[in-house]
Amino acid sequence: MTWRDLCSWTRRRDSSESERRLESNLPYEGEKSKNQPNRHYAGNAIKTTKYTLWNFIPKNLIEQFRRVANAYFLSIAILNFVPSVNAFQPQVALIPICVILSLTAIKDAWEDFRRYQSDRKLNRRPCLIYSRSQQSFMERRWKDVKVGDFVRVLSNEIIPADILLLHTSDPNGVCHMETANLDGETNLKQRRVVPGFCDTNSTFEPQNFNSIVVCEKPNDNLNHFSGFEKGNKKTGFGIESLLLRGCTVRNTADASGIVVYAHETKSMLNNNRPRNKRSKLERKMNIEVFFCVLLLIFMCLIGAVHVIWLESFSTIPMYFIPNSDGTYTSSALSGVNMFFTMIILLQVIIPISLYLSIELVKMGQVYFITQDVDLYDEERDIRMQCRALNITEDLGQIQYIFSDKTGTLTENKMVFRRCTIMGTEYPHSENATRLALLAGETDADEEVIYQQNRRPPLFSLEEAQDGPARASARLPGNSSLHRSRVTAGASSCMAFSSPMETEVVPDETLLHLMENEEDKSYLDFFLAMAICNTVVVSTDTARRQGVTGRRNSALSSNPLECMEGLFSRATCCKRLRKSLEKLTCRRDSHAEPFDMGQTSFYDVSAFTNSVEGFDEDENAPGHRSNVNRRPRTGSSPAAPLEVCYEAESPDEAALVHAAKAYGFTLLERTPDHVTVRLPHGKELKFKVLDVLNFDPVRRRMSIIVRHPRTREIIMYTKGADSGIMEAAETQGDLDMYARDGLRTLCFAKKVVNEQTYSAWSIRRQEALAAISRKKELLMDTAADMENNLTLLATGIEDRLQENVPETIRALREAGIQVWVLTGDKLETAVNIAYSCMLLDHRDLVFTFNTESKREFSIGLVIDGRTLSLLLDDDLQTQFVELCSHCRSVLCCRATPLQKSRVVTLMRHRLKVMTLAIDGANDVNMIQAADVGVGISGQEGMQAVMASDFSISRFKHLKKLLLVHGHWCSTRLANMIVYFFYKNVQAYVNLLFWYQLFCGFTGTAMIDYWFMIFFNLLFTSAPPIMFGIMDREISAFMLLQLPQLYKRGQQTGGYRRSTFWIGILDAFYQSFICFFIPYWAYEGSDVDIFTLGIPMNTVSLFTIILHLAIEIKSWTVVHWVIMVGSVLVYFIVSLAFSALCISCNPPSDPYWLMQQQMADPIFYLICILTTVVALLPYFLHALRGTLMPSDHLKARQIDQLPPHRRDQFLREWRNLQELCASFPSV
């Protein structure tokens, strides 16, 4: 067995294993690689390049010849080397294909060189690796890291590989990690040392590690990891103990661990190459290319049959050349030879430069889209980004839009509104009035709603062109290197710092009950709000380094003073002002904003550990809140600390702030305990026994703690109402909240006895240590514990983004069907649908909410359980037929899988162009659509990273589709039709007409060098400029008249009839361009090239002026390129005629162009032929003024004075509204 066979065998063996086993590399330090225990696992070096210096040419050529067009032109060039069929000099025939291949190769080489530079920079980053010989951590490079090495990462440094955490500087064994570079989530994640592995208070000694680590095979699941450490005992661990490559250590001096994945890290496996989608227009174009091939074969068959027909004459034509032995080639063979000769002669009917020109046009279109200032979010410094360069024209053909709600239509900024405790509803009317006032004060009066660190965009145009730009290569630490170490710039992201989101006015009734009663249910409710969440707490002494934020000094730092100032400007808030005055009287200068220090409260337990959110829409992280409090004064135990809340969802931040308003302040969270300060100032620390993390099946999370005084074991649960046992006294309030557009969730409590918990804990530990079926085992143990719960409820408001109703209305006027697929409660989703004008009060709305299959009437609102039935095979046809007649469709309580199935079903059954847009983590839905759009909002960047286009606001979708989509689709469609017309008119037909007079011998009346220059030099720039810069209608009119978008939905501006009209026009123009010069010189003694020069010239004039008629908006660039193309033609022609004496023997073009330009007949022929050739097309363009289309009318309106234009648009909109009110009109 050879070494290569051995390596291949070990790789196959490794891939067949179900788990990964590794051990420390330290005992084998300095030994040969064959003795290393982890030698089968890939190293940490990154290589994203496709080529090397040695394989670039062959590999690039193979890649380019995968394109059928390139293979076609290469075969034509090779065919020209056959003497019996060649039409030109063989070497000259290679020039066009060589130019195209060379330009593409240079582009590919430059892109690959940039990838090489990025890889080299990343691989040379420094890191600390433990050396047994040096008895310390030594500085090495990232590329030197191997599986089984011990690596130490310092604060604010980027993690070089996936590391199992074994030690941290934190006494509680906690390490905080920021994953913004990996998934866009800006909140801190907690990681903790493997349970029971080492004493966190002692010095970490890697050489003492003698255990075997067993974990799962490398995979791309960022939220799951399982394994166990096999030493003296078997200890299980999960994702909470794994440091992910590309993330940044925060708020921890140092963290150390053993490398479990090097090259196969989760970040590397998640970062795929940009998807290569094919646009609808490109698929249509391939059919037209096939028609051109059929046309070419037909014209070549005419030449072959003509030769056979000539040889049937009694006398052989004099231009038939005999063979060396005096005989003539048989007619059949002559016909075959002529067929291939004609193919070589007319080969340009397939435009060789079309594909390259389309790529250049799309790159130019993407550049102008990304530079549009209207699609730029100045608040967060985010611009529109494009990851799919080849589907820009699909933006102009969208027929169905599928949108999520939370974070897409709404701001995902949550504010606490009302709650229900033990069946009693507390409306918080004073807080509602305060929120109404803040909402009316404009965004300028808010302090800082959301600030995002101004780092380079995740996906720029350059990175999209680069291909596999690794996520870990886009790390923001390059500008802040400290002592040559790799340090990530500290984030400055702070969320929920506005008064609207952080300050809550307590309900007077509930506050009075809490002051006068010691009811445990009220206290449990606020304690659950404070600690049953994923919020990470840090104080002013542990704040992440470099945290800075812009603050609006116009608002007072005192929340009550701020509110009082706002209310003093409102005349309708006297009652609320009195309430604030009462609360201010109770406030102590050193206490919380609403101090209840004189009240006796029940001492309850606190909880710890980060767990997942309760709802599908909540489970998308990316939020943090900076809560500034006054510093301690004196020794008062109730003096507030300055704490910073890092929440994984806006819901949790709103709940923590609401609990704090009632005096329940979350102070500290560690893996083992959580500390809460009660309203009277007493701090209680509760031991965390276990955490039941959130999952989308259960739709809830739970935390189990031990009470510090009563020693009771208590479990608190938070989740969606569908995930917790329903209770009659609460469900009515939940439905009321949903009808008001509030997001609803439930809190529940359960007291567990010692025996039950002990038996359950054993099963839980076994599940945690499992590798196979771990998820199922954990689900089973959670179901065993989460039962017999006592319910509570609360309501949170999620505000709509600005201009969402206007955007949806414009999209619907454009003929686009808008669907909303959300996981929210039905009543909540319906209320939001009315708010954003998805549903109109004039609509007849039917609701599907059933659990069994039966006959239905038409419906618009569908529940998730019903949706699962409708997606079955036996109901899909009826479901699609129903939806095709609906004005709007709203699917609520839909799972991510159901969303993607709905998109796929409608796309395949109706054959429509679909677009999916999401601002959180519905990656499946985005990837199922023809075009995926992600919103870079507050819930992370998962959708953005999986999308084709990313925007920062839903309102940007309006201009992206109605303006840029219309422009891109129209420009590219017109350019493709023009390209086919140009090539057929220019030489294919001119040469074909000439064959009628030269006996189909394959002779050309134009020098072959001019034929090459014509497509590569003289006429290459104008169509590219036309495809990038032409504007049929201005952006203003496209936004004012969304109906103009409808033309592109069915045909995309590219109809087959348009293609054939262009071909017929090319035949007519070529006929004129050939026969007028031929008749002008008939009977004269001019040579063949003297005849060809005016034909070539008038062909150029006709093609350029034809494009000039097509152009709708002229700029300086248009004039320069159009006039410049004509000047270049004459300059090159004059130079070629003067210098090239025998460039293409036996032809001799010397001084022919000079002689022609000295002859007045040449100018007369050029003028007359061009006018006659363009006359039908010019009359066709004039016909549009007599029967103008909607687009031409829009251009005419746009040219009116502004006041007349606006008056016309107002009258037109009033007419539209009148027609909508009376459909029968």
TrEMBL record:
Keywords: ATP-binding, Endoplasmic reticulum, Magnesium, Membrane, Metal-binding, Nucleotide-binding, Translocase, Transmembrane, Transmembrane helix. Residues 944-1181 form the P-type ATPase C-terminal domain. PROSITE patterns: ATPASE_E1_E2 (PS00154). GO terms for biological process: phospholipid translocation. Mg(2+) binds at D404, T406, D918, D922. It is found in: Endomembrane system; Endoplasmic reticulum membrane; Membrane. One of its GO terms (cellular component) is phospholipid-translocating ATPase complex. The active site is at D404. Its cofactor is Mg(2+). Pfam families: Cation_ATPase, PhoLip_ATPase_C, PhoLip_ATPase_N. It comes from the Eukaryota. It catalyses: ATP + H2O + phospholipidSide 1 = ADP + phosphate + phospholipidSide 2; a beta-D-glucosyl-(1<->1')-N-acylsphing-4-enine(out) + ATP + H2O = a beta-D-glucosyl-(1<->1')-N-acylsphing-4-enine(in) + ADP + phosphate + H(+). Residues 34-92 form the P-type ATPase N-terminal domain. The chain crosses the membrane at residues 287-309, 338-358, 993-1018, 1059-1080, 1086-1109, 1116-1141, 1161-1179. It is a multi-pass membrane protein. The keyword Cell division does not apply. This is Phospholipid-transporting ATPase. The lineage of its organism: Eukaryota, Metazoa, Chordata, Craniata, Vertebrata.
